[in-house]
Each structure stands twice: as structure tokens, then as C-alpha cells.
Amino acid sequence: MTPSGPITWNALFADVPVVVRTVVLDAGHGGHDPGAVSNGRWEKDDVLRLALAVRNLLQAQGIRVVMTRSTDIFVPLTERSATANRNNADLFVSIHRNASEHSTANGVENFIYTSAPANTENAASLVLAEVVAAGVQRDRGLKRGNFSVLRHTSAPAMLLELGFITNTRDNQLFDQNFNAYAAAITRGIMRWF
Predict the structure, then answer these.
(1) Residue-wise pLDDT tens for the chain (193 aa)?
(2) H or E segment at 125?
């Protein structure tokens, strides 16, 4: 009979370090900064709800999650990046909703820093692909941008724009696919790890 259980496990893997990954989730805007607003809907509320849902799913996978905000407070952009850097984040994910003067503008897109390396591009592509698979009007693709949180965060960082708050169908999809979007972001992150 082969021995098994905790004693055998500890004997086999006692010298193997346990790797705990850290993800910093950044719910955009907050407090006196509502972000995009359309027909009584506020970006800061949508993204906080989604970030909290993603946090719960990641924690269930054994990921250490640090939130830049977990309530409706204002956090300066520099502090968001500083939180990631202080916590030696393995990945930084900033969640937003887009807006446009044109109500027909729609879809999701994921931004990385203008000079981000291939591993950051890979992480952002995986997350975007999972979100698109969960059901969106339009895949606007992976883009590069000079956003403060991307520029000042040491870890691979992305800024996910999850549909246009100024588009009726994108809002319907956000509500209908809320759990699917949270799961999709989590899957993309776990695939990258």
C-alpha cells in the first residue's frame, strides 16, 4: 500500500516554496469622481461592483488580491500605482466603463502602456479574449495608451474598458453578463498565471 495524505505530501514537497500571486484590482474613479455618467448610471458604481466580484473569484483560486478601493472613495491616480508597487503586484487590472458623445459607440477594449513588453500584452490579450467570449457587441481590441496607472505601475498593467456606459446595449450586456464578465476576467488572469 502506498502512503498518502498530508505526511507524504509534506515529505515530498517540504522544500518547494509556495508561490502566492498578488493581483491589484483597481476600480476606476470613486468618491467625488463619478467617472462617466449616463442616464443616472455612474461608472464608479459599475466598476466597483465588478472589481469586488472579480476579487471574490480570484481569492477562491488562492490569489492574494489587493484593492485600490473597496468602497466609494476617491483614490488619486498616483496612489493606485503606488499600491501596486508597494504590494509587489504580479498583475495590475484597472476596470473602467467607456463613454462617447455618440450613443452608437460600443464594445470593449483593453489598454496597456505604450511601451509595455510582450508579457503585459499577453496578459491583456488573454483577459480581453475571455471577456469577448462572454458576450460583447464589439471587440475593439488591444490598444496602447499613456494612462497614468499604466505608466507608473511596475507590474504588468492593463486598463479594461468594459463597454460604453453611453450605449444602451452595452449597459444591458453589462447587467445581463455581469457574473460572466467577472468570471471571464478571472479566467484570463488565471490563464496568464
Answers:
(1) 455 566 665 666 666 677 899 999 999 999 999 999 999 999 999 999 999 999 999 999 999 999 999 999 999 999 999 999 999 999 999 999 999 999 999 999 999 999 999 999 999 999 999 999 999 999 999 999 999 999 999 999 999 999 999 999 999 999 999 999 999 999 999 999 9
(2) helix 118-135
Residue showing cell 490579450: 125
> Which position among 43, 109, 130, 161 bears the catalytic label?
161
C-alpha cell at 180: 460572466
Gap between the Cα atoms of 93 and 113, Å rounded:
12
Contact predicate 171/36, CB 8 Å: no
Q: Is 161 a catalytic residue?
A: yes
Q: How far apart are CA 156 and CA 150, in angstroms?
A: 8
Name the phi and psi angles at 13, rounded to 5.
-120, 20
> For residue 150, which of 179, 114, 180 has the smallest C-alpha distance?
114
